[in-house]
Amino acid sequence: MWEQITTNFSFSHLWSPFFLVGTLIVIFLYIMFTGPWRSKIANSEPVIWKKKASFIAGAIFFYVGFGGPLYLISHLMFSIHMVQMAVCFLLVPPLLLYGTPGWMLKPLLARGGFWKPVKVLTKPLVALVLFNMLFSFYHFPLVFDYLMTNYVEHIAFLVILFISSLIMWWPMVCPIPEWDTMFGLKKVAYIFGNGVLLTPACALIIFADSMLYDTYSNPATWSYALGLCLQLGGPVSPELYSQFVPMAPLEDQKLGGIIMKVMQEIIYGAVLGYVFFQWVRKERLKDDEEVNRLLSSTRPATRLE
């Protein structure tokens, strides 16, 4: 299939050079401002290598999902579309948020006047409902087919959806320590809540008895949407449909729903494990501090001769 893709689509269509250059510039600026240029930002602190690796990985996955081959291939098959959704909205945001130091983010929020809106939108209940509502709305058949065949509206909605995914992940991976007020069981419940709210959309796709999306079942609509994906690069022949859809459209649709649910469970499960062990670690440290405090208070004072 990859040979067919490289034969029918140019390098720029697959790799989006301008998007790639923009990603490399962002990574370069991040490395410099967390390294040699860190002194230019007030109250800056050293950034551990794990956070740097997380941000760089998030930026790379962001490029792959929105500018690399995955973006184009997601227009060929619905199952790949759901892989792209999982990468862009469930994997990239926590990597970027974990890798962004709070001291870097504070001046940007303060200068743009975003403090109050961010505080309101990142309240757990608001963040939980906002992303899952927008994600489900995006995959409502009429909305989905409309967006996939209208370039400007599609890009605008993807931007909104990505911002909402950052908001959704914020309570779990808050980059500003003093704003991180959700701990332990609250974070565990929040993760479970996300899994529950995303399930209906996946179930609708998995158990549908007919095709929901004209974009992936009608060759004419498919070719038009693909032409828009190529950055308004012209129409694509509907005859290519049979070459790039190796399975029945309904099977591809069901597979897409399964992929989304499985990838969601894997990512949420990994975050859940991290949150749980961090919680256990904090509780142990508290217990150790309490034991040491009790021992020091009961220890007899040394008398001076």
From TrEMBL:
Subcellular location as annotated: Cell membrane
Keywords: Cell membrane, Membrane, Transmembrane, Transmembrane helix
Main location: membrane
Top-level division of the source organism's lineage: Bacteria
Transmembrane feature ranges: 14-33, 53-72, 78-99, 120-140, 155-176, 188-208, 255-277
Membrane topology designation: Multi-pass membrane protein
Name used for this protein in its record: Cytochrome c oxidase assembly factor CtaG
